[in-house]
Amino acid sequence: MLDGIRIYGDLALVTGSGNPELATEIGEALGQPLLKRSITVFPNDNIFVQFEETVRSRDVFVIQPTCRPVNYNLMELLILIHTARRASAGRITAVMPFYAYARSDKKDMPRVPITAKLVADLIQTAGADRFMCVDLHAGQIQGFFDMPGDELTAFPFLARHIEHLSIPNLTVLSADLGFAKKARNIAEMLHVPVAFIEKRRQGTQTESLNVIGEVCGRNVLIVDDEVDGAGTMAGAAAELRREGARDIYACFVHPTFSAGAVERLQKAELTRIVTTNTEPIPREARLALPNLEVIHLGPWLACVIDAVHRGLSVGETLTDYYARCADV
User: Fold this and answer.
1) 3-state secondary structure of 13
2) Which residue among the candidates 106, 107, 199, 267 is catalytic per the annotation?
3) Hey, what CATH topology would domain 11-153+297-327 get?
4) Residue 23's closest CA among 319, 305, 226?
5) Dihedral sign, CA of 292, 293, 298, 303?
6) Are residues 6 and 306 in contact, defined by beta-carbon separation less than 8 angstroms?
7) Would residue 36 show up in a list of annotated catalytic residues for this protein?
């Protein structure tokens, strides 16, 4: 090919039950129908998968975030990959917009697992040749895979969306010091100052301690990679109000929204909440949060999948993609 180095067969997209809406977006952006397949769950909870089209020698992308229900979606991903391998696929890429167990990325207490590594091993053992993820909780997880892959970040989209809101006197705030570097990068994208909240975690509970940086009289954008129980986000909002902040916004990639999260976000009285569709957001959550805005990542992921399929540089492809988006 003149515009790439494609060495595998035709593109094939297959989706599990994790986020079929996002997979449909990707297929539509590529002009590529999703592979016909059947997934059956037997009364004993066993999962059975059958592809209804050939994937022999094809370049297969299995689109399946391991979001809730985590263990079911993870097992379904493994079986889809294994099915493609048994059906003689040419290459298999596990596309996981959300990567479960990412917080279990190190042994920080005695006698605990590193489950993020276990998941990576399972994906490779199932038969994947490559992986693709969006904003992993910890960068070292990339090294857990003994195969090539791409960790993508959706924050340029989020930053561009915030920039178009033209919020005056804005400060970016990281609600977790572990996210400080990414928060600084986002602040640089927006050309605004950055602040941080120091917090201490006790089991599953978090306690905000103090704000590092100037937020009094300023509008503040709280940034994070994921909102799970929303305790960190709600605690940060409360601390910012005590420090005299004005309007408070929230921006994050993964809307996990565990039990109680939506209620905490409601009580936080955020001016606007900006997230993406790496995970499906229940209709009830959307109705309960009228200030929630969802950025759809399907066309962006489709651009990356197309580059990988055609043997093009992902970095250069995304640079061109962001330039085209800036002109819109």
Assistant:
1) strand
2) 199
3) Rossmann fold (3.40.50)
4) 305
5) negative
6) no
7) no
